[in-house]
Amino acid sequence: MLTELHIGIDDTDSEKGGCTTYTAAVLFQELLGRGFKPSDFPWLVRLNPNIPWKTRGNGALAIHFFIDEEQIEDVHRIAMETVDKTTVASAHGTDPAIAFLKGQVPRALREYSTRALHDVLSVREARAVARRAGAEVHALMGVRGLIGSLAAIGADLESVEHTFEIIAYRISENLGYPRRIDHDSVKLMNSKYGNMTFNNLDSESGRVLVSPHGLDPVLLGIRGYSPNDVLDAFKELQLNEEIERVMIFRTNQGTDAHLGKTRKAVDLKPHQSGALTGRVDDVP
Predict the structure, then answer these.
(1) 284 touches 191 (CB < 8 A)
(2) Of 238, 169, 130, whose CA–CA distance to 25 is shortest?
(3) Which pLDDT does position 196 carry in this prediction?
(4) Is the N end or the C end of the chain the one with fewer CB atoms within 10 Å?
(5) Domain-by-domain residue ranges, the chain?
(6) Check whether domain 167-251 has CATH 3.90.600.20, yes or no
């Protein structure tokens, strides 16, 4: 009998390279290639951006597949192997973790995920939520990644405001070298798709924003409001290096999800996110 299996992944990257979106893309395409049917796009969930120990954007990932009960153990094994082989360890702490949940996502996990958008959560609470939700969790090195792997599963992106991002990944031979993207083609793409995508260019300087600059495998990412929008925009670009793979993610980027909690300044704690209401008494 088929059941929906949710797989959450976090913290496979470090300052030395790697990217958790890449891990999710590899696993998603591996399972797809084995004939398993996804129930949605992979989810890229940006959690509280104020967390000081984040690697870059504090993103956690979740993928969702319909799996025959008899094959779930095999899928667990494939997922664990994929996380292990795509993790780039760091002396400063890389804490890859993976979570598995069968069936409907319970309310306790959805509420936990909402809190992860704006609060600082503990590993102890993550383990307690996993037990209540019936989720199976694995920490491959340190334990901090358990928080994001669970929060990604509970994000419920289909039911809340969301956007999409298409990400192209580099072949391993090009890692560490400058990214070869024709910047004029990015500007042309933005002139055609600027109303359907966002954050392609710096609005003041015109600087190209679609590509990172570190050792990670991301060549570029285009964010927009529908899968077709980001795919069409991507096709406009002139890329001067080989691509290993491409993936479209459903995501909460660009939605200000981390500001959904209204707080009082007196109650605000270090590293929390939220919206404050105030009054400007004089001209700054």
Answers:
(1) no
(2) 169
(3) 97
(4) C
(5) 2-159, 167-251
(6) yes
Report the distance separating Cα 79 and Cα 170, nearest Å: 21
Give average pLDDT by consecutive 10-residue segment, the chain, 284 residues. Answer: 95 87 98 97 95 83 97 97 88 83 96 95 94 95 91 96 98 95 97 96 92 94 98 98 98 92 83 86 85
Using CA atoms, how far apart are residues 78 and 110, in angstroms rounded to an integer?
A: 26
* Residue 90 pLDDT: 64
Residues 242, 248, 254, 259: is their CA dihedral positive or negative? negative
Token couple for 39 = 């129930």
Closest C-alpha among 28, 21, 22, 26 to residue 59: 21
**Which residue type occupies 19?**
C
Beta strands 163-170 and 43-46 are unpaired
CA–CA dist 187, 249 (Å, integer): 23
d(CA 55, CA 83): 17
Q: Would you give the end-to-end CA distance of the chain in angstroms? A: 64
CA neighbor of 145 nearest in space, from 116, 105, 108:
116
pLDDT at 92: 65
Whether the predicted model's global pTM rises above the 0.70 cut: yes
- Confidence at residue 32, expressed as pLDDT on a 0 to 100 scale: 98
CB atoms under 10 Å from CB of 141, counted, come to 17
Q: Which amino acid is it at 7?
A: I
Contacts of 204 (CB under 8 A, 6+ apart): none
CATH (residue range 2-159):
3.30.70.2200
Please check whether residue 46 is in contact with residue 251, taking contact to mean a CB–CB distance below 8 angstroms. yes
